[in-house]
Amino acid sequence: MAQDRVKVILGHLRHPTHAAIIPHQTSGSVGAGGSSSGSVGEFTYTLDNPHLTQAQRAFYEENGFLVIPNLVAHDEIDQWRERFLDIVDNRVESGGMTKMKDIALKGLAGIPGEQIVNKIQDFVWDDILSQHCQLPQVLDYVECFTGPNIMAMHTMLINKPPDPGTRTSRHPMHQDLHYFPFRPANRIVCAWTAMEKINENNGCLFVVPGSHKGVLEQHEYPEWENGVNKMYHGVRGFDDVPKSLLSMEKGDTVFFHPILLHGSGANRTKHFRKAISCHYSASDSHYIDVKGTTQENIAKEVEELAKKRNADLDFKDIWKFRSRLVRGREISL
């Protein structure tokens, strides 16, 4: 049973309603079920790097995520917000970016793009939006998980719309590794930055602390009464496991492991909730063949979408196309 697996994974962890932010300049008690003890030899998910305190490193090892407050400047975030609006309103070219539309807004016309597009992806070559994935202060933390040679693999700006009462603005619980045909998982990390104050009301992230110690689960579309957004695959059987809500301020950034179970709630406000993220991988990682695995369903879906855009590429080639080197040397990815 899925719940039994999570109980084993979580072990002795405590599960608060709200995860504590671990300040990046302190080294005291980590709270939120984390442990500040442990020698270097016990670390699996982080690398030797003085940029993380011992407490922060132990917290990530135990929980699979770490929130760094006020990491990104507000004026940069405001610039990215304006760029997003320019793109979705077709005032500038979107190039090879993918614009995703919320299922609840399907068929609407004659309204601003912000009210239709719930996500843009693959802006890694955009002069303005790609600044996020290249920020030195972000990469300094990324290097603690990937090592010095870093590829930006997947970029997103999420524009969670006000929920119309259908709860379709939710994102089902999932593991990001489901979407990635490259390994090892422990050298992949996501940097997810809040572009405004984010809390339970407007659909903050929720995580299952410690679940990064598990395995990649089967993902499918959830059977939601009012439908689900394209490619919003999720795991089943984990609805009742304890979760932590990540309330964040503008500029806060959470780093998390690709096997960490997470999702986001419905946006119950009247405003669009924005966040920007990038998944990184060590450049000496390798691609795998997902045929015959639990990832085959998403691979086929991504390849079919590429064909509709006149790009006859396989799953691995698509990922090569959407990534770029952001620090160090390009090796095997």
UniProtKB/TrEMBL annotation:
Q: Which GO biological-process labels does this protein carry?
A: fatty acid alpha-oxidation
Record's signal peptide: none
Keyword Metal-binding listed = yes
Gene Ontology MF terms? L-ascorbic acid binding; metal ion binding; phytanoyl-CoA dioxygenase activity
Source domain of life: Eukaryota
UniProt-listed Enzyme Commission number(s): 1.14.11.18
Q: In which pathway does it act?
A: Lipid metabolism; fatty acid metabolism
Assigned protein family = Belongs to the PhyH family.
Return the PANTHER family for the record.
PHYTANOYL-COA ALPHA-HYDROXYLASE, PHYTANOYL-COA DIOXYGENASE, PEROXISOMAL
What is this protein identified as?
Answer: phytanoyl-CoA dioxygenase
Q: What organism, scientifically named, is this protein from?
A: Petrolisthes cinctipes (Flat porcelain crab)
